[in-house]
Write a structure and sequence with these properties.
heterodimer, A: 226 residues, alpha/beta, six-stranded mixed sheet, four-stranded antiparallel sheet, B: 385 residues, alpha+beta, 12 strands
């Protein structure tokens, strides 16, 4: 995996429940080249969200290493990992997870508060991100004033506003109607093709997976090529 | 947008809950302030006592009088500057509900020994010239609309009979804390009447107020005064004015202690109200905290959010509580001014109430902050609701 921006090597993840060990991923390796749009599919409990969480640096492997753009994130401290996530990962959740008391603008601005950007620069970035997702006219709307599809587009704007190294998306269309889902997938496709963003997406939806360059299937913690 | 803005929005996310919590804190702070003021008011007499005044009374009990002849002997004790004497008059004005202190005092020495009572020279002169004249404090005059020249009729109990006094002066306190709710009249007037109707009780005084030259000599002068009357029929007990008044207060120490305990219980109630709100809030927002962590916010950021929200509610409640303490205290003071002449909210009470509100705000945030910090992101994201 010489040119991979995401290098997962021999990763295992075991959850402990009481005294029981529950293996979720077993000795898994995966490489994602820069600029690729990868879909991860598999049945519930197959470990695809766990793998996505490990790649995004919000969970740690029990063994093995995860190298993203040259950084072995499995060795970083909690605070270093938090800083790394803010710079390198854009996360798109299934249920959008916008902060309800903040407007679309303020939600998208959130990750930028962790940077040294001035207020004026933050404004430029936020307006650009909201422009990319086609919501320039909704910047002062609160999440409850937006449709599900619009909320997810705001969440995508929040994910791209820091210009991250990778975008990880966990069932981004799972809570949307068909039309909104198509819009969101088209947006992700645009981000990949036009802005050369590396995207790793977990999905149950074959139509969503079709938009990806490559699909990998997970079953019982093991990967197989489509 | 700054973190402060998010804290502010979070505070008012559930407007009704926030309003009720702030109101709860405010009422608790106000109740704490009123109770503390009641306690400090109780002690205010002792605290405002002059350091250069001693009180000499019968060693058996305050209710047993002393001979008037002691005055000259006390005056001769080295270090004594002046001696005033007084009797508690009691009696009833209109009915028992209209209570205020009435004291027969030696008008000749009154203003010298009690310089904190300010009386205009004209009014002082008029009082001195009229045997049945009296002076009343400004608060008392305001309460009963007493004016110069008014006649006040008191039905005596300790000294039976219908007693009439003409208002010759209205005194003001030198300090804000000086009481202004007492009626003073000439001891000579009382003695003359007693001489006619109860001669065995004439020429007796309730207590002597001994003004000394140097407050540092208080112990020595007290001993010297009491030594004069050792083995007499009326032995004396001399102590500082502060100790004398503290003796009165100690009679009601159980009530005061209860009030103090209740005031601290109220702090506990504030804590429970706010802690409950913060715990509910943190439980509801676990998923949001996980999202913020995912975006790169650190534990320190979450602590600022949670402590900031808790402190904002506590401080808002504290400020509202302090603001409503003043009108409530004014109403309380008006209703109770006959019994508690000095019901003044001290700055120290407000500072203590404010500090307690802040401390409660900090403590209430500890548990939810700890929960948010120790939460794993993946667990938080799985949280529903």
């Amino acid at each position: 995996m010489p040119d991979s921006i995401v290098e997962v090597k021999n990763v295992s993840k075991i959850y402990k429940r009481d005294t029981m060990d529950i293996p979720v991923l077993q000795n898994l390796s995966l490489g994602v080249p820069e600029g690729e749009f990868l879909a991860l599919m598999g049945p519930s409990g197959s470990g695809k969200t766990t793998l996505l969480n490990l790649i995004a640096g919000i969970d740690r492997p029990s063994s093995g290493s995860i190298n993203i753009a040259g950084t072995d994130i499995s060795t970083l401290s909690e605070s270093a990992l938090a800083k790394w996530r803010s710079r390198h990962v854009g996360f798109v959740f299934q249920f959008y997870n916008l902060i309800p008391v903040l407007t679309a603008y303020e939600n998208v601005e959130l990750p930028l508060l962790l940077t040294d950007l001035s207020k004026a620069d933050r404004k430029k970035h936020v307006e650009t991100a909201l422009g990319v997702v086609g919501l320039s006219d909704r910047i002062h709307h609160y999440p409850k004033q937006l449709s599900g599809g619009q909320e997810q587009r705001v969440a995508i704007a929040r994910a791209i506003v820091t210009d991250p190294t990778i975008i990880v998306a966990d069932e981004p269309t799972g809570d949307l109607d068909r039309k909104s889902a198509e819009d969101v997938l088209a947006l992700l496709e645009q981000l990949n093709q036009e802005f050369k963003k590396t995207i790793v997406m977990v999905t149950h939806d074959p139509a969503a997976a079709e938009k990806a360059h490559k699909t990998r299937h997970l079953d019982k913690g093991e990967l197989s090529m489509n | 947008m700054k973190i402060a803005k998010l804290i502010f929005r979070n505070v008012f996310r559930h407007k009704l809950r926030a309003a009720l919590t702030i109101l709860g804190v405010a009422i608790a702070v106000m109740a704490f302030g009123l109770l503390r003021t009641l306690v400090t008011s109780w002690y205010s007499g002792a605290n405002s006592a002059a350091p250069d005044r001693l009180v000499t009374r019968n060693s058996v009990s305050f209710i047993f009088p002393l001979p008037l002849s002691y005055r000259d002997q006390i005056l001769r004790v080295p270090g004594v500057k002046n001696v005033n004497y007084s009797n508690w008059f009691g009696g009833q004005y209109i009915d028992k509900q209209h209570f205020f202190a009435r004291i027969a005092t030696d008008a000749n020495t009154f203003q010298t020994v009690y310089p904190e009572y300010l009386l205009s020279p004209d009014q002082a002169s008029a009082w001195m010239k009229d045997r049945s004249g009296c002076i009343v404090g400004q608060k008392l005059a305001d309460q009963y609309h007493f004016k110069i020249g008014d006649v006040i009729t008191i039905v005596g109990d300790i000294f039976p009979g219908n007693w009439q006094f003409v208002v010759r002066g209205i005194y003001h306190g030198k300090e804000k804390s000086t009481e202004e709710s007492t009626m003073y009249f000439q001891w000579d007037y009382l003695n003359e009447q007693v001489l006619k109707t109860m001669p065995t009780r004439a020429n007796k005084v309730g207590w002597y107020t001994v003004q000394i030259q140097n407050p540092n000599d208080a112990a020595r002068v007290s001993e010297a005064v009491d030594a004069l009357f050792t083995n007499s029929d009326n032995e004396t007990k001399t102590e500082t004015e502060k100790a004398f008044q503290a003796g009165f207060i100690s009679m009601s120490s159980a009530i005061i202690t209860s009030l103090q305990i209740v005031s601290y219980v109220i702090i506990g109630i504030i804590f429970l109200v706010l802690a409950n709100t913060m715990i509910m809030t943190a439980r509801e927002r676990i998923r949001e905290y996980a999202v913020l962590k995912t975006l790169g916010f650190t534990g320190q950021h979450l602590m600022i959010l949670i402590f900031g929200e808790s402190l904002s509610i506590a401080i808002l409640g504290g400020v509202v509580g302090i603001l409503i303490t003043f009108p409530m205290a004014a109403g309380f003071a008006k209703g109770m001014e006959s019994f508690i002449p000095q019901f003044i909210v001290e700055p120290s009470t407000l500072i203590i109430a404010g500090i307690f509100a802040v401390v409660v705000g900090i403590i209430s945030a500890i548990f939810p902050a700890n929960r948010a910090l120790s939460m794993k992101i993946v667990d938080g994201l799985r949280q529903v609701g």
